[in-house]
Every structure is written in C-alpha cells, then in structure tokens.
Amino acid sequence: QDLGGFYRPETFETMERIVEKEKNPEIVAAALESLGRYHTAEGYALIIRYLKSQSYRNRLALAAVSAIRMLDEPQFITPLAKVLKVPGGDWSRGRFAQALDTLAHIARNEEDKTDVREFLLGHVNHPDRSIRAGAISALGTLGDPKAIGIVQTFARETPRDNVERAARDSLAKLREQKKFVPQEIIELRKVVEDLKKETKKLTDEMEDLRKRLDARPESKRPEKDTQPAAADPNSR
Questions:
Q1: What is the distance between the alpha carbons of residues 191 and 173, in angstroms, rounded to a whole number?
Q2: In this structure, are residues 36 and 69 in contact, taking their beta carbons and an 8 Å threshold?
Q3: What is the pLDDT of residues 77-101, one digit of tens each?
Q4: CB 89 within 8 Å of CB 56
Q5: Cβ distance 87 to 121 under 8 Å?
C-alpha cells in the first residue's frame, strides 16, 4: 500500500517527518508525492524546497512536480517556471516534458496566460524531439488560442511522428477552446438581455400600479352639520 493511502491530518504529519528524516530517496519521493493531497502552508514550503533540489535524475524534483499537479494551485506557476528555466538541469527528456505539461495544467485557468505560453513556445523548436512534442502538447493543455498559429505549423492530418501527433491533438484542443470563448460571451449577452426584460417588466408593473393608485377616488370626507342653528333666546 502506498505511503499516502489515507487522507488524515496525522498522515500528513507522518509524510512530513518522512520527507524531513528519511535517507532513502525513493521513500522520500513517495512521501513527497503524497503531500499533493494536503493544502497546507507547511506542505507547500516542502514541495517548493524539493522542487529546487538536486538529486539523481531529478527524482525528488519530479516528485514535487507530481504533488504540484495534484494540488492544482496557480501559486506554483512562478517557482516551477523558474526551476524549468535553469539551464543544465538533470532532467530526463520525458520528465522535463512532464514538468512542462504540469506548468500548463496549473496555469490553464489563469486570465493572463502570456508568460507561460511564451515559455512553452520557446521549446517548440527544441533540438530534442521529445521535448519539442512535450512543449506542443503542453500548449494544448494550457488552452490559450493565441498559440494556434504556431501549433498549426507542426500539424498534419496524418501524423508521422510524436511531434506531429502532439500538434494534431493540441490543435484540436485549442480550436475547441477558441469556440468556447465566444459561446461564453453569447450566453452572457443572453443573461444581460433577460435581466433587461425583467427590469422593464418590473418597471411597467410599478408604473401601472402608480396609475391605478392615482385614479382611485379620494375618500369621502365627513359631511358638515346642516341643521339650522338654535335661536339665541337673548337675541330678541
């Protein structure tokens, strides 16, 4: 059974102790990955620390990347991008591509995707085709339609390799995203129009009520006493 198989506060404390004290890097990596289940400041700090760490084939940094993907928090965008920008890191090709996709994943809901998009575009011509394919695939994960023009240059209807397959799949995602944005605007406009109609209806009803109130006859006032006044006996 995996180390983080149960979600309990005491499990987090156990994982934290293992990460801090254990000497076996594989056990540390497993505990580090399990921290992705816990949204705590202490866990975040440990993950960022190991994200920046040096280990054989970046095993511990990759475990931190896995935890980041599970947490799905945009606050990791900057530290992850900073680590990936460091030249000469001990990443295998596949693990670097995996980290690129994680970066795109946690940035996918950001309003401004410019920095992440430009960073990924900087790898689409990488000499290593695995990293090139990973960057193109990550652009699809990011979901920024502004990348369509570049991704399209790598796509073919019948892909011949992993780069062209990544481009085809990413292009489909990006085009779907581009269609989704105007649809959101259409739905928003419909909501606004419905609100306008409801407001006009309410205004008309209030105006009608005011007119009816104005048209009502005034309440009858009490009639004045019309009896002749009694004669004053002293007036004669």
A1: 27
A2: yes
A3: 999 999 999 886 778 889 999 999 9
A4: no
A5: no
